[in-house]
Recover the amino acids of this structure.
């Protein structure tokens, strides 16, 4: 058996080879991920200041307790979760709608893709600066047009700040969802659709019974990637509102940045980031389990 | 024989490396700075030094530029790591306390004679625990910007004065007459802002009487805190937070009155420097509390055709303690981990002198030396006022150079922005601000 499967080599030989091949990657991961992770763990359990980075004082779980008891932390978690759910849903719906609408066009004119993907190429911080200008009450084009139709509220004020920063995120990252979903959509075998049509299925039935079920894995993966990315949103919100008014648009990343650099509470900031990491790992684990279950079926 | 040959070859290889690095090190001083107008002006000063006094000192200075984005965090990380890759570094009033443990005090490099030329408040703004940590190279403070054409008419037109008095009576409950902006109290400014707002005066030539900066941002608190100090308040009294005080209450209420009355654009809650300038530039705001740096651009006919030539400057309105303005400085400090402190000190001593700072001012800097600023009046009409206001009205809040300065600014920005936006009430804002301050100060 071993001969047939291993081409004449014993199983342990392949194992050593595998370890040798994995070695550089493991070293790379240990250096780039392992060390910072350990350092962060130590800092999250210590009282440490910029003036004493080399001499952290052990405080056990105090930083975690402080973070979990901080209403601003929960406010930031709430904002990030709400933001991520809203923008992910919007991006998936819009991205999928664009796929359905533009697929025939893109099949003939591939160069259109470049234009559709442009927003994704702009740095989020730069996008924030662009929108600061475009949303300005006096020189911005958006308020000018809105005033023409009788809308005079400020789009970064209390009532609209969430909607505005979410809309900007959706505009920037819908192309990503579009790209990922388009690839999956184009991989759907044409003969399935053809067979369904021969059997008399209409467009809606084809979409509901064939397209949508086959797109579910792609929608799940894209949704997951966009959720994680949106949950840790920072740049354009920080540039546009600074997390305000008050803490109305303070995401978890802004909370961590502020706690670390502006409040100089390094321990609690690192503890908050460890909690974020933990939540991501749990979420990733759950998703991977679901995906593996799906692939076994 | 072979061993000897090998040693000779190795020595031959090593010599140029050693000589090269020694040559590179000897007399070379590196200044860590950020790119922009300040570093461009500083380069002119450095060129002047390298071409003149530097030769006699045997010192050559060069700049190392980090990007502005996150500059202070990067500099702090490098200083804290004990980096000797740079000898001098940019320091500021509000980050001084964080940097000070990694900086060398420079009292020896800036003797009393050199100090006497500076505005005292500028030296105070880079002093911590009685030690000077930076040569102040740029000063920032605030002006009341106002539309001269409109205020002149208000002071001479009986119809406008009648309407002004009606607004004062209706909004503040007392008889008031317009005054020259240099004599304004906060109440005078409020009434003027209401008068020049379409919400209270449909005939106003501007949509808004003023434009406030209320974004959750530490620099906006620096601008606001003149309302606190001019009413006799401060951050700390006897080492304890004193923000929850009648002065703090009055100061916060000044801004709140104006935004609630729509005398400032509703978007002010997300405004900072650039947005406020845009409103004033567009001719849509009659007054503005703003940093001195804005004047050059606002008074440039090419950049601001609607308002250039029509701008008046005055001290910020007065409270019970008179006119006040926050002052902070940028300066150059000496890295404690520098391997060339002696050489770097020579450059610093030169930089603190009149020749160096004159070159710096002519290249676009604003050094806090009143005599130099006065001499620049033809090119920069606002400069003499910068020197004058720094001397007469300038303050640094108690604790403004301490290690907790930025954390305190941050908590004030968050709570005050929330109050102005209507998220929390005044009592809550002051209580939470005082509590946050105490936590930040305690560390």
């Amino acid at each position: 058996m071993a001969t047939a499967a291993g081409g004449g080599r014993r199983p342990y030989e392949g194992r050593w080879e595998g370890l040798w091949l994995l070695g550089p990657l493991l070293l790379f991961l240990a250096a780039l991920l392992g060390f910072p992770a350990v350092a962060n763990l130590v800092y999250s359990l210590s009282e440490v200041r910029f003036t004493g980075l080399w001499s952290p004082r052990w405080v056990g779980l105090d930083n975690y307790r402080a973070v979990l008891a901080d209403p601003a932390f929960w406010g930031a978690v709430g904002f990030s979760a709400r933001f991520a759910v809203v923008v992910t849903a919007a991006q998936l719906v819009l991205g999928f709608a664009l796929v359905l609408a533009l697929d025939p066009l893109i099949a003939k004119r591939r160069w259109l893709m470049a234009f559709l993907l442009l927003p994704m190429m702009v740095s989020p911080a730069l996008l924030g600066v662009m929108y600061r200008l475009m949303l300005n009450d006096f020189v911005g084009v958006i308020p000018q047009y809105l005033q023409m139709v009788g809308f005079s509220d400020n789009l970064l004020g209390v009532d609209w700040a969430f909607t505005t920063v979410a809309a900007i995120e959706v505009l920037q990252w819908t192309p990503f969802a579009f790209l990922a979903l388009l690839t999956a959509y184009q991989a759907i075998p044409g003969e399935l659709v053809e067979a369904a049509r021969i059997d008399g299925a209409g467009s809606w039935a084809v979409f509901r019974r064939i397209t949508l079920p086959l797109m579910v894995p792609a929608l799940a993966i894209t949704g997951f990637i966009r959720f994680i990315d949106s949950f840790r949103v920072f740049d354009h919100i920080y540039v546009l509102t600074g997390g305000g008014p008050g803490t109305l648009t303070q995401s978890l990343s802004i909370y961590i940045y502020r706690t670390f650099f502006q409040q100089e509470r390094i321990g609690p900031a690192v503890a908050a980031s460890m909690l974020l990491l933990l939540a991501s790992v749990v979420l990733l684990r759950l998703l991977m389990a679901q995906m593996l279950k799906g692939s076994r079926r | 024989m072979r061993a000897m040959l090998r040693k000779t070859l190795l020595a031959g290889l090593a010599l140029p490396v050693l000589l090269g690095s020694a040559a590179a090190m000897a007399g070379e001083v590196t200044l860590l700075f950020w790119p922009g107008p300040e570093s461009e002006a500083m380069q002119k000063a450095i060129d002047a030094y390298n071409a003149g006094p530097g030769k006699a000192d045997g010192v050559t200075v060069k700049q190392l530029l980090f990007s502005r984005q996150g500059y202070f965090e990067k500099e702090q990380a490098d200083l804290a790591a004990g980096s000797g890759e740079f000898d001098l570094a940019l320091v500021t009033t509000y980050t001084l306390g964080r940097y000070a443990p990694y900086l060398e005090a420079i009292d020896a490099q800036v003797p009393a004679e050199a100090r006497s030329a500076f505005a005292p408040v500028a030296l105070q703004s880079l002093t911590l625990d009685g030690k000077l940590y930076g040569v102040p190279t740029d000063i920032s403070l605030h002006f009341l910007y106002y539309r001269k054409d409109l205020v002149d008419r208000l002071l001479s037109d009986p119809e406008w004065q009648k309407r002004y008095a009606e607004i004062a009576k209706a909004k503040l409950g007392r008889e008031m007459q317009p005054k020259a902006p240099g004599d304004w109290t906060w109440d005078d400014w409020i009434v003027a802002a209401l008068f020049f707002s379409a919400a209270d005066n449909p005939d106003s030539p501007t949509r808004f009487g003023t434009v406030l900066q209320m974004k959750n941002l530490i620099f906006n608190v620096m601008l606001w805190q003149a309302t606190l100090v001019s009413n006799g308040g401060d951050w700390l009294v006897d080492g304890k937070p004193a923000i929850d005080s009648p002065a703090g209450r009055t100061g916060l209420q000044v801004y709140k009155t104006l935004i609630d009355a729509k005398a400032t654009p509703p978007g002010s809650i997300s405004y900072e420097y650039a947005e406020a300038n845009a409103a004033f530039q567009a001719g849509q705001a009659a007054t503005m509390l703003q940093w001195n740096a804005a004047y050059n651009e606002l008074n440039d006919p090419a950049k601001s055709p609607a308002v250039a030539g029509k701008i008046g400057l005055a001290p910020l309105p007065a409270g019970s303690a008179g006119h006040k303005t926050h002052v902070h400085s940028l300066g150059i400090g000496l890295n404690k981990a520098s391997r060339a402190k002696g050489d770097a000190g020579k450059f610093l001593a030169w930089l603190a002198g009149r020749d160096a700072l004159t070159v710096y001012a002519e290249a676009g800097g604003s050094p806090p030396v009143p005599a130099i600023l006065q001499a620049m009046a033809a090119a920069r009409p606002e400069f003499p006022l910068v020197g004058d206001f720094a001397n007469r009205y300038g303050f640094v809040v108690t604790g403004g150079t301490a290690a907790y300065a930025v954390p305190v600014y941050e908590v004030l920005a968050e709570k005050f922005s929330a109050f102005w936006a209507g998220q929390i009430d005044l009592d809550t804002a002051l209580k939470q601000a005082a509590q946050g301050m105490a936590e930040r100060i305690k560390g």
In short: DSSP finds 13 helices and two strands in chain A. Chain A touches chain B at residues 49-51, 53, 125, 132, 135-139, 152-158, 161, 240-248, 258, 261-265 (CB under 8 Å). The CA atoms of residues 155 and 163 of chain A lie 8 Å apart.
